Every structure is written in C-alpha cells, then in structure tokens.
What we know:
This protein is α/β, with parallel strands linked by helices. The protein has one domain: Alpha-Beta Barrel (TIM Barrel), CATH 3.20.20. The protein has helices at 24-36, 56-70, 85-94, 115-126, 139-142, 148-154, 170-179, 194-199, 214-225, 229-248, 253-261, 278-290; strands at residues 7-11, 41-44, 76-79, 102-106, 133-137, 160-165, 185-188, 204-207. It has an eight-stranded parallel β-barrel, surrounded by five helices. Helix 9 crosses helix 10 and helix 11 (253-261) crosses helix 12. It is globular, with a radius of gyration of 18 Å. The termini are far apart.
Amino acid sequence: MSEFLKGTGVALVTPFDKDGVIDYDGVTALVNFCIEGNIDYLVVLGTTAESVTLSKEEKKNLVAHIVKVNDKRLPIVIGIGGNNTAAVIEEIKEVNSSDFDAILSVVPMYNKPCQRGIYEHYKSINDNTELPIILYNVPSRTAINMTAETTLRLAQLDKIIGIKEAVGDFSQILKIIKDKPADFLMISGDDSLALPAVAAGGDGVISVIGQGFPVAFSEMIRLGLLGETKKAFDILYKLLPVIGYAFEEGNPAGIKNILKQKGVCEDAIRLPLVPISSDLETKIRGFVENY
C-alpha cells in the first residue's frame, strides 16, 4: 500500500515575494523543478514550508495551487500536526482527502507529553481519518523524543504506515528498522543520514536539500535502495558541504538561498526567521556554481 512513498520526498518551501506575500509563480517553478528532477513525491505544509507563519486562508490557497500545478503527476503528502489533538483532528477533517496520499503529523511540541501521551495522541488521529499517516519525530524542534518502542507500538495501528525519523540518533533508527513490520516505512528526516539509513534497510527520505538538487539527491537514494552503495555514497560526499550550508543558519533560510542561486524562487523569509548572512550566501553561491 505504501510502496509509492519509497524514495525521495521533498518538504517544499513556501516562496514569498519581497513583501512577504506568497509568490505563486515561485511555487509553480519549484513544483515543476522538483518533478522534472525525478523526485518521487511532494510534502506540503511541513516545517520547511514555514507553515506556522501561514494563515488558515494562506494554507488553503497554497495547497490548492500545489495540487493544481502537480496535476496528479506525483503523490502529495500534507503536513497536519500540532500540540492540540482535537484541533489536529478537526483540521484533518477539513481537507479534501482525494487530493492527498498521506498525512505527515509531527510529535506534539512544547507541552512535552510522556510516551503514553504521544501514543494516545496518534491513536486518536488514527481513529479519526481515512488517510494513511506518517509519524514525524524531530526532537530538536518538539523538545521530546518519541522512542523506538513507542514508534513500533504505533506501527501496529491500521492507518499508520511509517515514520519520518529525524532523531539524529542512528541507534534509534536501527532499532526501528530491525523490529518494524515489513510494510512500515522508515523514512529519514535527516539529509546527511538518509543514505546510511537506506543502506541499513530504510525506505528513503523526506528531504530539504532534495528540492535544491533534485536530480542528484533522488538518484543517490535510488541507487541506495538498489544496493549500489558505492555510487550512492560518491554522490552524498559531493553534496555534504551544501547539506551543511543549508542548515548552518537555520531551515528554510539556507535552502531558500540555494533555490535563489538556482533561479527557482527568491529567498524571502518570514519573521522570526531571517535571511542568511552574506558570508554563508557566498559559500552557497560558490558551491552551486562549481557543482
């Protein structure tokens, strides 16, 4: 059922103009750039989309535009998460499920639930949607880690098909891969660890840098899934510097500047995030020009 989400998904940025308004021409260019670069699926309204700064109306219009531009060429995963379980369920009920292939839902942030609370949060979502659910564990943002044990327990629920794991602890990733159900997806949420995770038995990545270098990054993951690890790691080692640059001064400021250097969209960003420094921009420009 979830085979179509193997490979490389990209967590799309939201292009803005200099006044901070959504740049729909930039959105169109980005979606087409990713599709033409052989990306396997699109992720909308993730953290990289600056979704917490978008109004409800902006989210609705942005998603509708992406769905229209995509025109069913690739599967689309929509990010719907938060720390109010009832509100998350209500938001899920408001989306047109026929437009999306799965939901990506982050571990509740700020209120720091215990593992039982995390389980019950996701179980409630599982019981109130028809769409497949991808869990998203990112302790650097949520201030709480969902353990491998909780993930594996949730993997038994009928709508939960996988996890985007960005824990940064490779031993936790290995625990999940070792004991997960055969059809449960272990998707990396860390660009630098994605290929090692695939080599260990993972299923791919939801990537930030993949939208800046879609051809190379998706080929790297594809080769990894085929077991051609030498060729895959050669690509990773070439991309490692720019992966570092993308996160050096925060996401999505870095990837937006990469996309600017590529001529895809501008690098405008909404407060409280700010554009990258001129020093980092110089490093990114040098990498893009010489890659």
